[in-house]
What does this fold into?
Amino acid sequence: MPVRALNRQGGLRAPWVLVLAFLATIAPLATDLYLPSFPRVQQEFVASASGVQLTLTGFLVGMAAGQLAFGSLSDKFGRLRPLLVGTVGAIISSAVAALAPNLEVLIGARFGQGFLGAAGIVIARAIIVDLTHGAETARTMSLMMTVAGVAPAIAPSIGALLEDPIGWRGIMWTLAALFLLMTVSVFTVFRETLPPERRGEHGILGGFAQLFRVPRYLGYAGLFATSFAAMMTYIPASPFVYQVVMGLSPLVYGMLFGFNAVGLISAGYISSRLVRRVPAQRIVALAAPALLVFCVAILAVALLPVPHWLLAIPIWFAVTSVGFLMGNSSALALDAVRHVSGSGSALLGAAQFVFGAVVSPLSGLAGEHTAVPMALVMTCAAAVAAVLALALRRRHG
It folds into this structure.
């Protein structure tokens, strides 16, 4: 018997929140969990490094395409059936990846894993919009985005611990078990949140056409994607910036990277509490310019003849600022398109991955001995976010 969704205060009950967080976490966790095993995969299949990296590319492409597909399907057929199809398919894809006889099969299985696993993260956002309103939507979305944002950061550390005892095939079986647990959790806790009378009558792809008629959605979706891009510029550049530019040891780098993750988590938690007293629009209107200020500070330190260890200070504040933006901006975007929230969630997630994929390689254009490219790309992304926040504030008061 499914658990009742809402408590007396109109918020989601704890079992729903836990399963939604689980849905939002598994796919990002699957992105990076096996990265420490790349050398083993390369050795086993006698493959090139670029060939092994295609297993990650396949997953990311599948994740972007899967969010678009399952988001629109959930607007047409309800949330539960597409979600269960996706989670069961992700179990099968994970098993195929674990048994892959060659690199080509592994790449295909990872694409399927990303495509089908995307159902969880995109439909989780739509379910939140189905069940909550106003500040409660922003609060729940902030908590979920915080968990989903931290998962890719901690996944390589967990994968490093698992790599020796179980290897990359064991990690794929672990992902299959997690997707199985996710399926059982959905069966046990969830019920359908989109009744037939609220389902779209404009076809599977028609929901996307509706999105481009809502400037408020487009503005907050752009703000969400650009603030995420600022963080995704920092993440791949961080090993070189901290260890080569600043001259810190791997241990100190790991500690500071974890400290930044704590800032991100804390900001998401504080935002989820603050939004009940301060409108989400106001939080976004303050956090976006703050992100720009801190990114400019990173650029200034990178350019000026000052001690490079000072970079760590504005980087922490910039990452923490993102924690105030992602949950609130996604909630505000989806609140504007409740009639097609599945498609809205899909486009939001796809934009997130596309922006992240575009900016990640830009941070290393000038080599590993300078932080200027990272700082410049972060500043450009933050500038767009700040302009969007200002425009939205003027347009909607």
